[in-house]
Amino acid sequence: MRVFDFVCRNGHRHEHFVPNGTTEVVCDTCGTEARKVISAPSFKLEGWSGSFPGAAMKWERDHELRAKKKPLE
């Protein structure tokens, strides 16, 4: 089961926890048929590089660890 967005013909948008194959539910507000719609993804990119903040922080942390482990020449 997953959470999906559903919109009825009157424009009411609701989230419903339904099985994967469900494409229609009853609108909570007006009782008409509501169809499953594609939801906007939720993620955050860095403004200057376009990469994911978690990936950039992981790279920086790994880079520092490798520099500390590397023997001085």
Could you explain how this protein is built, in words?
- The structure is a single chain.
- With 73 residues, this protein is of the alpha+beta class.
- It has 2 domains: 1-39, Rubrerythrin, domain 2, CATH 2.20.28; 43-73, no CATH class.
- It is built from 1 helix and 4 strands.
- The chain has one helix at residues 53-69, and strands spanning 2-8, 13-18, 24-26, 33-37.
- The chain has a 4-stranded antiparallel beta sheet with strand order 2-1-4-3, with no helix packed on it.
- The radius of gyration is 22 Å and the shape is elongated.
Can I get a quick summary?
23% of the residues lie in helices and 29% in strands. The protein is built from 1 helix and 4 strands. A 4-stranded antiparallel β-sheet has the order 2-1-4-3, with no helix packed on it.
**Structural classification:** alpha+beta
Our count of domains comes out at 2
Mean pLDDT: 85
Shape: elongated
Ends apart, CA distance between termini: 57 Å
Please give the radius of gyration in angstroms. 22 Å
The number of helical runs is: 1
Low-confidence stretches: none
Q: What's the architecture of the largest domain in CATH terms?
A: Single Sheet
Q: What order do the helices and strands come in, and which of them pair?
A:
Elements lengths: L1 E7 L4 E6 L5 E3 L6 E5 L15 H17 L4
Antiparallel strand pairs: 1-2, 1-4, 3-4
List keywords for this structure.
73 residues; alpha+beta; Rubrerythrin, domain 2; four-stranded antiparallel beta sheet; 29% strand; elongated
